[in-house]
Amino acid sequence: MKLWSGRFEKDTDALVNELNASIGFDQRLYREDIQGSLAHAAMLGECGIISTEDVSAITRGLTGILEDIKAGKVEFSAENEDIHMNIEALLTARIGDAGKRLHTARSRNDQVALDFRMYVRREIPVVTGQLLHLEKVLCRRARQNQNAVMPGYTHLQRAQPISFAQHLMAYAAQFRRDVTRLEDCARRLNECPLGSGALAGTTYPIDRMQTAAALGFDGPMGNSLDGVSDRDYALELLSALSIVMMHLSRLAEEVILWCSWEFKFVELDDAYATGSSIMPQKKNPDVAELVRGKTGRVYGDLMSLLTVMKGLPLAYNKDMQEDKEPVFDAVDTVELCLPAFAGMLDTMTVRTDNMRAAAGRGFINATDCADYLTKKGMPFRDAYTVVGRLVADCTARGKTLEELELEELKAVSDLFEKDVYEALKLENCMALRGSYGGPAVQETTRQIQEIEAFVKAREH
Questions:
Q1: What pLDDT does 460 receive?
Q2: Helix, strand or coil for residue 266?
Q3: Please, where in the chain does CATH 1.20.200.10 lie?
Q4: Which architecture characterizes domain 109-146+161-357 according to CATH?
Q5: Looking at 155, 277, 435, 460, which residue is catalytic?
Q6: Where in the chain is the domain with CATH 1.10.40.30?
Q7: Dihedral of CA 186/192/194/200: which sign?
Q8: 8 A C-beta contact, residue 265 and residue 345
Q9: How many CA atoms lie within 13 A of 65 on its CB side?
Q10: How far apart are CA 193 and CA 454, in angstroms?
């Protein structure tokens, strides 16, 4: 018999049962459901709403159910719809009428709102922990490659000389924002909906402060309608996870390019690559490609919940049962991608020789040549034009700027002297870019140290 069957004279249609049931996916909330019920029962006893004997029986029963679920001894039933009703039915079967008193002054609406909020709160540190590990990997690889000159790109065209360290630390800066974004989400969600009832609170003399404190919340939510209908925290989580995946996907795209024979800047470890069923020479960057592909999946999870929530009147509506699967899917996806990606980066071989060779082509020291003339007194726009003519000439002749003879350089400007060759040397071009945030070793050292300090401050 369904827990809500008193109002109904006919059995629920089998298809409606199938449509209505959520136990297939919300069973992962069993810890949160039992934890919330234990706090609720303790509060009911403290407030004199149920007897201390009932509280003891409920506590004993719920603790036993939790142990049995963890041991794999419990089979959930679709007949009981969801994790909340499954646990209540198990409890009542084990301890009798005391189990029926647990739901006093509580609705499934505030119960599920509590469980889901606690689940999101539990998973955020898992994701941030994985992000912090990825940050460590990026810092370690950056320290190894502070002098590795590579071309920096705009429009995927070689632009200016940078170091591989600076390139990696750009992503470290992005992942740092991801961590703080998730931390902000955790702070904002930490209000307790328990005690909101179905929507209008309860006539029982409950103590919402007690349950909020017992469950580690900063306090109860201030409006009971909002308490049962808010899913902002789930949307914030999905938004933050979508941005995490976007950052991973951008780096994945670069790894895919770098692995190609056209670049050959890195080579992936065999443990993080796959082969072809027909082409024996292939070594495919499947980890990076799968992360890039799964980014769209997480975006879909965000759009799914946004769409569910966009037209719902207050307070609870059954549509909101569709909130969990997108969040579960996004969390599972991100928690799978992050450690795999970190492992791929940590084990890949960096081909600094190929990076340097690529940097030597494409005139990425052209800006430095113009800066050289500017420092000699020529207005920058004039210097820009002069160097542009030199680049055009070099392109036609298959030369680089540093391969031009001094007489050829002086033919376009008598400001050129022998020291121009030092100014055009790519290692010097990079080393002299010591402005805050630049690729010079002292600056990448500062960037690495800042991220390392950021990570250390969050390690326990």
A1: 72
A2: strand
A3: 109-146+161-357
A4: Up-down Bundle (1.20)
A5: 155
A6: 366-424
A7: negative
A8: no
A9: 29
A10: 32
Q: What is the value of pTM for the model shown?
A: 0.93
Assigned token pair, 234: 């789930």
- 377: three-class secondary structure by DSSP: coil
Burial of 279: CB neighbours in 10 Å, binned 0-12, 13-18, 19+? exposed
Q: Would you call 326 helix, strand, or coil by DSSP? A: helix
Tens of pLDDT, residue by residue over 190-215, are 999 999 999 999 999 999 999 999 99
- Residue 273's contacts (CB-CB under 8 Å, 6 or more residues apart) are 283, 284, 285, 286, 287
Q: Is 443 exposed, middle or buried (0-12, 13-18, 19+ CB in 10 A)?
A: buried
Q: Which amino acid is at 62?
A: L
Q: What fold does the segment set 366-424 form as a domain?
A: Ribonucleotide Reductase Protein R1; domain 1 (1.10.40)
d(CA 236, CA 127): 14
DSSP state letter for 350: E
Q: Supply the pLDDT for residue 13.
A: 67
Q: From the centroid of its chain, how far is CA 192?
A: 24
Catalytic annotation present for 155:
yes
Please list the residues that pair with 157 across neighbouring strands. 154
51, 77, 260, 276: the active-site residue: 276
- Owner of token pair 């990825």: 134
Compute the distance between CA of residue 102 and CA of residue 91 in angstroms, rounded to an integer. Answer: 9
* Assigned CATH topology for domain 5-104: Fumarase C; Chain B, domain 1 (1.10.275)
Helices (H), 96-155: 97-100, 108-144
Residue 14 is predicted with a pLDDT of 72
Which residues of the chain register pLDDT less than 50? 4
pLDDT digits (tens, 9 = 90+) for 111-164: 999 999 999 999 999 999 999 999 999 999 999 999 999 999 999 999 999 999
Token pair listed for 333: 């996806």
Q: What is the pLDDT of residue 277?
A: 84
Domain(s) labelled CATH 1.10.275.10 in the chain stretch across 5-104
84 is catalytic: no
Query: How far separated are the first and last CA of the chain, in Å rounded?
Result: 48
> In degrees rounded to 5, what are phi and psi of residue 75?
-110, 120
Query: According to the model, what pLDDT value does residue 279 have?
Result: 87
CA R_g for the chain: 31
Cα distance between residue 370 and residue 368, in whole Å:
5
Q: Which of 4, 228, 201, 214 is nearest to 105 (CA)?
A: 201
Q: What is the signed CA dihedral for 300, 117, 76, 5, rounded to 10 degrees?
A: -100
